[in-house]
């Protein structure tokens, strides 16, 4: 069963500095559930086939110019019919003044009407990006998320395996902590996962034998980050002598999270292994693979166990 997420109009008013013209109730009680937006040029002209009334409607310079060239009766009829579909909110951009018929129709059908000074296209782009994050499918997992050399590394493993201690060591080495213990993962596009910490435990880390610490206060603002894209999953597990671990790294392994496959690897843990350095190397190696270089492949080519492959440009993946 899919869960529908929402964001309040109050948050959008605050984030984008929107100016309310008419609100039928408090902005915190008006909820947006669709990440898509619409410019209702066709609807103002009377075409409502395939119209999604759950989308935010944005009226710009073109729509206002079209409405102004209509006669008084046509203008009133167009606005009345459009607002009768009761979209969640209508936003007038470019600092334009809403027409009196629009204000009257919004009050009649209790549709929120707000304004913004920004250009229509740039505002739509920012709004869609924000809605994709706020309304994204999500899940929370037990783990640690750190940024290492620009790569978002999600550390997973059983409780007590050393995830938090490794994260602190990475922070001391100049990397950044995003989340400890609970990582909230959101699918913000068909190819991208973004992780963050729940707000109530943000920047806090539990170290057995020491207790709870605040990484931001101990290591400074440069040691933490609010969100990070997840580029790699590292599973930490206690060393099992009977298990055969990958020693070459020729073929990439993947973990599926929210329908997206993320590069993953298993790192065995035992006394004497410096996990922080291993994870640093894993992050750099993962970046190299994304850019088309595989050290194991080069080695096998040099010893004659594999035919050399032609070098591909990093742009070939696009």
Report on this model:
- With 318 residues, the protein is an alpha/beta fold.
- It is 31% helix and 27% strand.
- The chain has helices spanning 9-16, 41-44, 61-68, 72-84, 100-109, 120-134, 163-172, 215-219, 275-290, 295-302; strands at 7-8, 19-22, 31-32, 37-38, 56-59, 90-92, 113-115, 138-148, 151-156, 176-187, 193-196, 204-207, 211-214, 227-229, 232-238, 253-257, 260-269.
- The strands form 4 sheets. It has an 8-stranded mixed sheet.
Unreliable spans are none
Strand content: 25-35%
Biggest beta sheet attributes: 8 strands, mixed
Helical stretch tally: 10
- Taking the alpha carbons of the first and last residues, their distance comes to 34 Å
Shape summary: elongated
What's the SSE pattern? EHEEEHEHHEHEHEEHEEEEHEEEEHH
Radius of gyration: 26 Å
Tally of DSSP β-strands: 17
What would you call the structural class? alpha/beta
Question: How do the helices and strands line up, and which of them pair or pack?
Answer:
Elements: E1 7-8, H1 9-16, E2 19-22, E3 31-32, E4 37-38, H2 41-44, E5 56-59, H3 61-68, H4 72-84, E6 90-92, H5 100-109, E7 113-115, H6 120-134, E8 138-148, E9 151-156, H7 163-172, E10 176-187, E11 193-196, E12 204-207, E13 211-214, H8 215-219, E14 227-229, E15 232-238, E16 253-257, E17 260-269, H9 275-290, H10 295-302
Parallel strand pairs: 4-5, 5-6, 6-7, 9-15, 15-17
Antiparallel strand pairs: 1-3, 2-7, 8-9, 8-10, 10-11, 11-14, 12-13, 16-17
């Amino acid at each position: 069963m899919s869960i529908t997420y929402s964001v309040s109009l109050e948050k959008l008013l605050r984030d984008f500095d929107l100016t309310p013209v008419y609100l039928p109730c408090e902005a915190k009680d008006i909820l947006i559930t669709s990440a898509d937006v619409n410019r209702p040029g066709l609807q103002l002209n009377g075409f409502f086939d395939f119209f999604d009334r759950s989308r935010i409607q944005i009226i710009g310079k073109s729509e206002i110019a079209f409405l102004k060239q209509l006669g008084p009766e046509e203008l009133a009829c167009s606005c009345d019919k459009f607002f009768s579909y009761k979209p969640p909110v209508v936003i007038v951009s470019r600092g334009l003044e809403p027409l009196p018929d629009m204000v009257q129709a919004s009050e009649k059908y209790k549709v929120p009407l707000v304004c913004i000074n920004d250009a229509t296209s740039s505002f739509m782009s920012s709004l869609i990006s924000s809605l994709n994050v706020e309304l994204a499918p999500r899940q929370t997992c037990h783990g640690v998320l750190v940024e290492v050399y620009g790569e978002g590394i999600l550390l997973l493993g059983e409780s007590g395996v050393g995830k938090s201690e490794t994260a602190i060591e990475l922070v001391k080495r100049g990397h950044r902590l995003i989340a400890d213990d609970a990582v909230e993962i959101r699918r913000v596009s068909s190819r991208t996962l973004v992780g963050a910490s729940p707000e109530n435990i943000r920047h806090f880390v539990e170290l057995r034998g020491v207790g709870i610490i605040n990484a931001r206060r101990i290591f400074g603002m440069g040691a933490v980050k609010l969100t990070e894209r997840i580029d790699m999953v590292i599973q930490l597990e206690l060393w099992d002598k009977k298990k055969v671990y990958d020693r070459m790294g020729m073929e990439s392994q993947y973990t599926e999270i929210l329908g997206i496959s993320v590069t993953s690897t298993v790192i065995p843990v035992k006394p004497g292994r410096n996990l922080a350095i291993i994870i640093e190397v894993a992050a750099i190696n993962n970046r190299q693979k994304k850019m088309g270089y595989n050290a194991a492949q080069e080695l096998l080519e040099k010893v004659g166990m594999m035919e050399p492959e032609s070098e591909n440009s990093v742009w070939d993946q696009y």
